[in-house]
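Async update (no meeting this week)

Hi team, since we skipped the sync, here's where things stand on the single-chain job. The sequence we agreed to prioritize is pasted below, unchanged from the tracker. I ran it this morning and attached the output directly underneath so nobody has to dig for it. Comments welcome in thread, and please keep replies under the output.
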Amino acid sequence: MANLVYLSLGTNLGSRHENLQLAVDALGEVAAIEAISPVYETAPWGLVDQPEFLNICLKVRTLLEPASFLANCQEIERKMGRVPGGKWGPRLIDIDLIYFNDWILENENLALPHPQIDQRAFVLVPLADISTDLVDPRNGRSVSDMLEKVDAGTVIRLESSHNRLRRPTELAWGVKTFVMGILNVTPDSFSGDGLYQERNGVSRIVEKGRQFVEAGADLLDVGGESTRPGSKPITAVEELKRVVPAIEALANSVDVPISVDTYRASVARAGLEVGARWINDVWGLRMDPEMASTVADARCPIVLMHNRSKPKDVNQEERLGGRYIGVQYDNLIEDIRAELEEIANLAIKAGIHKRHIVVDPGIGFGKTVSQNLRIIDELDRFMELGYPILVGPSRKSFIGYTLNLPPNQRVDGTAAVVAIAIDRGADIVRVHDIEAMVRVAKMSDHIVRS
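Output:
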């Protein structure tokens, strides 16, 4: 399992808030950011004749060992423009390793835990926001206990409009399984979780999004058009009406990246303008010829999904919902792999960077029940493409038909699929039941990522 690390970041030169965000974004390339404290303005410590600092703490996971992780932190400081200075002097950016698992380490380059933590209110106050029960392995005291013994009056939490940083857009693949929460801004979701309402709809979406993030979601996926088997398309105008207010409100309320689930370039652009940072295209750039250039210009990650959905192949049952029947492939896994590779190559040719591509084999989209089960079992075959893999099995009809259960009774079946998918190489799972699936992902990661 990845190493658990707590970091303290500080800055008192230049655009301080921007400095913190740039550092968080850069750290996201080598660590999965699990929690970011609010931003605090703090009096200088050690050398008082200098500007006040902004300070935050981070909880992250990384595959790197302490020396390598420290070297990466120092390289981030260097690239951001930090120059060598005196002890406790002004800093453009300062990244300190506070705790690394529960390890005690001391050499000429690094001491863990960081020395004098129990005296530093500017570290303990933001650290308490993300882990009050954390125990210092050297002195055996909890963060909350140490905080009681320092003067916190010099550490001021900024107003709400200035005290929040966002998590990185790009993710540190391989560190953990990332969980994407589904927010359906529709009245007709197959799973009964549609949040679209004429009145108070946005407030319900924000509340749900906050609940998802508090439960451990790493991303939120906002969609305004149902893609259940047999669903009817809506207009771009209606889709915009649903998703734009939802994305804008969420972007001002949560710190995780927001994805807009759409195959229309106009909706993608509008979503990006109000705060979305990912695109999830269920038609893999093939429905709208402007989508590829839109993503390339935005330089944002995109999920490219395999999709062979055709209305004529859908069979509807009232209790279990729609399923695809009679869908033929020459070679199921090879055909999907080849089509995903073709789509990814088109994306790269259009100017989308390879590191921004995520592939999705399209569970439930133009596949029969048995085909969906086989895709999950052989998911590791898609790792050969060289891209992160997203899987979206949540509450889908292949689970319902396998277990003979309606959508609201498919949590256990979803959990089984998620666990197997993680074992077979999934990097992101897109789900409805966040609290339960975060636990499944964590347990699975402890088994397969150790």
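Quick observations from my side:
The CA atoms of residues 221 and 272 lie 13 Å apart.
The longest strand covers residues 53-62.
Reply here if anything looks off.
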